[in-house]
Design brief:
about 10% helix; alpha+beta; 7 strands; 4-stranded antiparallel β-sheet; 2 helices; about 130 residues
Length: about 130
């Protein structure tokens, strides 16, 4: 183990390129991957599929569900319905740097469940 940790030659490739910050990643369906972004989008991509472009192995996502979760808390939460300690609790749970968007992703068979800082849960399936 020590040799592999200190001396191993790792090969790294970029298989998916997105114009967004990835917050969460689920690889339960490899080679399919589900990415949750800071903008609140869910992306589905195939890590083994490659681009047909010249000298490119990077692909975009196969599909994108936009604005599933709020990128900022203020976008979707009614101030009158917000519990008084919500912002403080979210900061304790996620820290100062986790931003908004998708906070958790779980995948089971063809079901994708995600949650965001707004407190919502979104369930969808891959068809």
């Amino acid at each position: 183990i020590r040799y592999n940790w200190k001396e191993a030659n790792c090969v790294s490739t970029v298989r998916v390129a997105l114009n967004d910050w990835i917050r969460r990643l689920a690889v339960d369906l490899y080679p399919l991957v589900v990415c949750g972004s800071a903008r609140g989008h869910l992306y589905l991509a195939d890590l083994e599929q490659t681009s047909t472009g010249k000298d490119s192995t990077t692909m975009g996502p196969l599909d994108c569900l936009k604005h599933v979760h709020a990128s900022h808390l203020e976008e979707s939460v009614d101030v009158n319905e917000t519990p008084p300690d919500l912002n403080e609790a979210l900061e304790v749970l996620y820290g100062n740097y986790d931003g908004g968007g998708v906070m958790a992703i779980a995948v089971k068979k063809d079901w994708i469940v995600s949650s965001g800082r707004e407190g919502g849960v979104h369930v969808c399936s891959i068809v």
